[in-house]
TrEMBL record:
It comes from the Bacteria. PANTHER family: COBYRINIC ACID AC-DIAMIDE SYNTHASE (PTHR13696:SF99), P-LOOP CONTAINING NUCLEOSIDE TRIPHOSPHATE HYDROLASE (PTHR13696). This is Cobyrinic acid ac-diamide synthase. CDD domains: ParAB_family. SUPFAM superfamilies: P-loop containing nucleoside triphosphate hydrolases. Gene3D superfamilies: P-loop containing nucleotide triphosphate hydrolases. Transmembrane segments: none annotated. Residues 1-169 form the AAA domain.
Length: 248
């Protein structure tokens, strides 16, 4: 099983949209997929209409080491609850708190080909749990100066985790999100990313697309909602790229 953390401490850069649609893209190509909502804001959970579920949630993982997925429409999901935001405090004195998610996921590894983790917009203990549980991290980003600085901060955290925990995590891709192909300045940022992180930039890009905004609103994946849209084409390309990615 491959475990991919979708992380970026900035909000609104496409983590949830990417977790959801990459997950469905992989499921449509006959992979068994588990999605984990690790964000107390619960966008993924609300999208799949599990907002009222109190059992079998990510909060349970941290409180009881219990991991029970709920099957929704082609993928399995572990939704979040609001109480997840208090977990940081609850865990502050728990020894080995960084490894709780990893140990839980290992219990059900045989049931899935891919686990994709939707991270919260910060580098706290939940994101650290995700990075330690994952073998790979996918970093969606917009193309501007602040976002570039955000990637630098995130990759520094990843390097620290690698050293501190002797954990080998690979950046599987940096994914340009909400790209306007006509905006020339985008090219400058693409070049900067390629220079800073050679070979890490995804070939695929997620273009600006109103269908994706609508699909989120209706709680539907882009392939079912608008199969001809740019969003569906872009997420299908990403699905193929991620599933075929060979590492260097
Ligand atoms: N291709 C797109 N073009 C424009 N807006 C998009 C696109 N895809 C998603 N969005 C919108 O961007 C917002 C932020 O995306 P989201 O995935 O929730 O980011 P994050 O999880 O990083 O906070 C969503 O509300 C969604 O409506
Ligand atoms: Mg999100």
């Amino acid at each position: 099983m491959r475990v991919i953390a979708v992380a970026n401490q900035k909000g609104g850069v496409g983590k949830t949209t990417t977790t959801f649609n990459l997950g469905h893209g992989l499921a449509k190509r006959n992979h068994k997929v588990l999605l984990i909502d690790l964000d107390p804001q619960r966008s993924l959970t609300i999208q799949v209409k599990l907002g009222n579920q109190e059992k079998n949630t990510t909060t349970n993982i941290f409180e009881k080491s219990e991991i029970i997925p709920t099957y929704v429409d082609g993928v399995s999901i572990i939704p979040a609850t609001r109480r997840l935001s208090g977990i940081e405090m609850t865990l502050s004195n728990v020894l080995g708190r960084e490894f709780i998610l990893k140990e839980a996921i290992e219990k059900i590894a045989k049931d899935f080909d891919y686990t994709i983790i939707d991270c919260p917009p910060n580098l706290g203990i939940l994101t650290i749990n995700a990075l330690i549980a994952a073998g790979e991290v996918l970093i969606p980003t917009e193309l501007d100066q602040y976002s570039l600085q955000g990637i630098v901060d995130l990759t520094e955290t990843i390097e620290k985790i690698k050293k501190l925990y002797n954990h080998n995590i690979l950046i599987v891709g940096i994914l340009p999100f909400r790209v306007n192909p006509r905006r020339l300045i985008s090219k400058v940022f693409l070049d900067s990313i390629e220079k800073l992180y050679p070979g890490r930039l995804c070939q695929s890009q997620i273009r600006v697309d109103v269908s994706l905004i609508e699909a989120v609103g209706y709680g539907r994946n882009i392939f079912d909602y608008q199969p001809e849209s740019h969003g569906a084409q872009d997420y299908d390309a990403l699905t193929v790229e991620i599933s075929e990615r060979k590492y260097v």
